Amino acid sequence: MLSLRIAARFLRSSPAQSALIMAGIAVGIATQVFVGSLIVSLQAGLVDQTIGSAPQVTISAAEEGDPVTFTEAIRELIAAEPRVEPGAVAAVRDASALYSDGEDSAPLSLKGGELGGLDAIYDLSGRTVAGTPRLGDGDIVLGVDFAEKYGLVPGDAVPLTFAGNRTARPTLTAVVDLGAAAANERQAFVSAGLPRSLTGWRADEFSAIEIQMRDPFSSAEVAAEWRTAIRSVTVTEWQAANADLLTALQSQSASSYMIQAFVLVAVALGIASTLAISAVQKTRQIGILKAMGLSDARAGRIFLWQALLLGSGGTLGGLALGFALIWSFSFVPLDFAIRPEPGFIALSAAVGIGVALGSSIIPTRSTSRLDPIEVIQSG
Amino acid sequence: MAEPTPAAPPLLVADALEKVYGSGDAATHALRGVTFEFAEGEFASIIGQSGSGKSTLLNLLGLLDTPSGGHVRYRGTDTGSLGKPERAALRNSLIGFVFQFHYLLPEFSVFENVAMPALISGALPAEDIRGRAVETLGLLGLEGLEEKNANALSGGQKQRVAIARALMNRPALLLADEPTGNLDTANTDLVYDLFREVSKETGTAFLIVTHDRSVAQRTDRVLEVRDGELVADERNRYLG
């Protein structure tokens, strides 16, 4: 461990130089941790906002407007699929209605289904701003913008008119914030029975079967498999409908990787140049140590230890700085929270130390090759 | 001085040493066929003018450099057959160096500088290293300076610390290259008196390179190098 002792002493003998390079590594690793966590969280937030509270795979009839029959085969197919989020399956019937309070009127898009499945997909309980969502016969859940516009509160009757002048007066049980203005202004949830009473469909006939996946990005694969398994229906999934969003996410990832890669290159160059300078500064000491019998390998290890000490110190500082940045961003009002991923943090730390070690190759080699006689002859 | 037993090989043998720098027309012969034997405990000097090859000879004898021809043998072992790590280990255990410049490590204390050869060898436990270093510093009149930084000493003290360092592993041979070149007359006298005293007390052989004949006259044997050749090998007359 003499090499480590000498390395530590060399670093301590130039405190400003050591502190500066550690600060450089720390800034690099902090950028790595912060930018990486930011992008991952931002993307997770974007995906969650876009399709987190919406069906990711939808099974509907082959012909638009026709009902799809929720057969036992489809039921079993969905139940047997482990990639489906448990409970997040809703057989829904859609209907259009006109709300009218005597003075104003506005169109409403009704989605009829069981509360359990709809809640799992649309997170009605989590998004409730007033009341308690219930979807029994004669109940309705409205978007927050619509409810505010017409001064509706839970317990109020909501007069609706359907095609053919049929009417209904369901009771508002809850007001929900669906996260998008268009949905908050138009979307309503009712029991599956209300649309059925208008269409006259059979009990196993629905507008669509909506499903959420455990991993939203598995939707394309699952949809393709189901298309092969059940040919008489149309299976759509969110990724095909949101190609632009996916391209944007991929571009964002690519730019994030670029930033991180260049930061690492800058860190590596910084460490390498500092160690190279240090190796030159310590040539005389290394030469005399070798004259005293220090082997080439042990002399080389001095700079390997220096790199490890600088890398570890800088990386620890960088992690602390990265967490501090993430914490400070918790005070900035954002639509998503930056969550540090333990795996990514560990990878960043490993990369930091690895880059430091890699940067020591040149000074380690030159030190190992240094002939003590060069030092002694040059005085 | 005790004569070595006839059966034991001499401490050091320089056998037809050659050193050539460069090749072809540009080749320079720094040493030509230098041959001599050196016994355990001898106190000798190598004298020569600047550029005569005396420092080159010292570097070869100190295993810091390899000869272009000939052999360096330590206690019968031909060092030419040794690899770099073995040569480094032999340097550490058998040879101490004192140069014109002290070459102390400014990052370390006096104690650490002196202890460094023992730390490199790793053969002694920490307590023994401490004891040996304090004893060696005492031998050179440097008691109480152990914890001082090497940079905080005077020129004479630094050179004495360098001598203490060279003696730390109790080498069989101390090679000194113009060891008092940077010192005033008083310190020069002090250093040679110390060399003589340490040689008597520890049995360490001394081989001192100098260009100063008056310095060489203080040693028991004078080897003279001129133009790369050993031209004289004399016992000092004053010793009879």
Provide a concise account of the structure shown:
The complex is a heterodimer of chains A (379) and B (240). Chain A has 379 residues and is an alpha+beta fold.
Structure description:
The complex is a heterodimer of chains A (379) and B (240). In chain A, strands 1, 3, 4, 5, 6, 7, 8, 9, 10, 12 and 13 form an 11-stranded mixed beta sheet that branches. Chain A has helices at 2-13, 15-52, 72-79, 115-122, 144-149, 181-186, 193-199, 219-229, 238-241, 243-281, 283-291, 296-329, 342-359, 361-369, 372-378; strands at 57-61, 68-69, 84-100, 105-112, 128-131, 139-143, 160-161, 167-168, 171-176, 187-190, 205-206, 208-213, 233-237. By secondary structure, chain A is α+β, with helices and mostly antiparallel strands. Chain A is elongated, with a radius of gyration of 32 Å. Chain B is α/β, with parallel strands linked by helices and 240 residues long. In chain B, helix 3 (110-121) crosses helix 4 (126-139), helix 3 (110-121) runs parallel beside helix 5 and helix 4 (126-139) crosses helix 5. Chain B is 33% helix and 26% strand. Classes of the chains: A alpha+beta (379), B alpha/beta (240). At the A-B interface, helix 1, helix 11, helix 12 and helix 15 of A face helix 2 and helix 3 of B.
The SS-based structural class of chain B is: alpha/beta
* Average pLDDT taken over every residue of chain B: 89
Topology pattern of chain B, helix = H, strand = E: EEEHEEHEHHHEHEHEE
Terminal Cα span of chain A: 29 Å
Number of strands of chain A: 13
Architecture per CATH nomenclature, i.e. the level-2 architecture of the domain at 12-106 and 172-239 in chain B: 3-Layer(aba) Sandwich
- Mean pLDDT of chain A, to the nearest integer, reads 88
Radius of gyration of chain A: 32 Å
Annotation, overall tally of beta strands of chain B: 10
Count the DSSP helices of chain A.
Answer: 15
What strand order characterises the main sheet of chain B?
6-7-8-3-9-10
Task: Estimate percent helicity of chain B.
Answer: 25-40%
Oligomeric organization of the protein chains: heterodimer
What is the CATH superfamily classification of the domain at 12-106 and 172-239 in chain B?
A: P-loop containing nucleotide triphosphate hydrolases
Helix-strand makeup class of chain A: alpha+beta
Number of helical stretches of at least 4 residues of chain B: 7
Show unreliable segments of chain A.
none
User: What name is given to the CATH topology of the domain at 12-106 and 172-239 in chain B?
Assistant: Rossmann fold
